[in-house]
Amino acid sequence: MKKILLIALFLLPISRIQAADFLISPAVIDVEMDIREELSRTIILENKEERDLWVYGTVFELDAEKGLLPQNPSASTKNAPANWIDVSRALQIIPSLSKKELTLKIKTPPGAISGNYHTAIIFADSSMGRDEAEAKMATEGKRILLNISIRDNSREAAGLLGFKINRKIITQDKIIFSYKTKNTGNVPTSPIGDISVTNRRGAEVVTINANPEDKKLAEGELWETTQTLKGKLPMGKYKAVLNISYGDRSSQLQDSLEFWVVPMWLSILVLAVIAITPFLYWKALMHKPPIRKRRIQDGPVIVDLRHPEQ
Questions:
Q1: Which spans in 62-177 are helix H?
Q2: Could you tell me if 198 and 239 are in contact, meaning their C-beta atoms sit under 8 angstroms apart?
Q3: Under DSSP, is residue 260 helix (H, G, I), strand (E, B) or coil?
Q4: Backbone phi, then psi, for 274, in 5-degree steps?
Q5: Where in the chain is the domain with CATH 2.60.40.10?
Q6: 132-136, long-range: CB within 8 Å, 24+ apart, which pairs?
Q7: Fold adopted by 19-150
Q8: Which one, of 122, 123, 114, lies nearest residue 145 by Cα?
Q9: Which of 7, 136, 186, 221 could be 217's S-S partner, Cβ–Cβ 3.0 to 4.6 Å?
């Protein structure tokens, strides 16, 4: 009896360190995705033993130099492909000689960079809890290799929402242009271009950098800026044309407006004339001579002798 008990005690730790006999499929999953895309796959755990298995799963990132890197929830999602994968970390009890299906979800974040990423989903059996299972994963765990390829769908685009000037009639030495634009693409972009001012003959008289600070717009960012033209322009009518481009500079956004440059003394003179005209008109009406009525003289009376009674 003692001999049988010793044999049982000897075999007990051996049975605990033996790898559980279960299978996981598929062995490899290859997916090609876009940024901000979500998809799901089904994985199957199959228990080959005549006992229930307690299985835990964990997602790892595969690094060519460092090997298996555990999932780090606090890491930036765009640089941590293991955080794109959602698979249940709860205990999975697989009955004897049976199969169990799990849903694997993959969701690429907005800031993900195009390229190829490699991860592993490893399952290990343990009746002692998750800590023991994770300790066994590197040596005894059954794994699925998940390869994620993100397509390069980066798109630089923008919209021009307005172009205006501080005044349509300029009487001062400072002219202020302003425009509003929005990044409608899915990557940061920087507008490049200028504001060209031409006279009535179409000759260019001055050019202003539309983005001298080299402002970079984040995805979805709305930006309004002002650019100032300092210095006097000769009196006359002018046209300002805004040209800005984005991305590979093959597409351009354009808008234009017209304005007048008038000397201050002329503006004052025009305003004075406008202000005094009603007064002069009223004064002219007040001094207009009255209209005399013409007297109608009495004419001769004609009597019809055929009807004297009339």
A1: 130-140
A2: yes
A3: strand
A4: -65, -40
A5: 19-150
A6: 133/54, 133/55, 133/56, 134/56, 134/58, 136/19
A7: Immunoglobulin-like (2.60.40)
A8: 122
A9: 221
d(CA 237, CA 197): 10
Between 279 and 32, where is the model more confident?
A: 32
User: What is the C-alpha radius of gyration for the chain, rounded to an integer number of angstroms?
Assistant: 44
Residue 235 structure tokens: 């009196």
Looking at residue 262, what is its pLDDT? 84
Q: Quickly name the fold that domain 158-264 has.
A: Coagulation Factor XIII; Chain A, domain 1 (2.70.50)
Query: For the purposes of burial, counting CB atoms within 10 Å of the CB of 269, is it exposed (0-12), middle (13-18) or buried (19 or more)?
Result: exposed
The string of pLDDT tens digits covering residues 42-56 is 999 999 999 999 999
Token pair belonging to 133: 């299972």
In which residue ranges of the chain is CATH 2.70.50.60 found? 158-264
Query: How is residue 175 written in tokens?
Result: 């002219």
Structure tokens at 305: 């002798």
For residue 268, give the DSSP letter: H
- Say if residues 98 and 106 touch (Cβ distance below 8 Å): no
How would you list the strands of the sheet with 174-183, edge to edge?
A: 158-165, 174-183, 222-230
Burial of 140 (0-12, 13-18, 19+ CB in 10 A): middle
Structure tokens at 171: 């009487």
Task: Specify burial of residue 160 (Cβ count, 10 A radius: 0-12, 13-18, 19+).
Answer: middle
Please give the Cα distance from 303 to 310 (Å, whole number).
8
Give residue 7's pLDDT.
28
Q: In this predicted structure, which of 47-56, 197-206, 251-260, 263-272 has the lowest mean pLDDT?
A: 263-272
User: Is 227:177 a contact under the CB 8 Å cutoff?
Assistant: yes
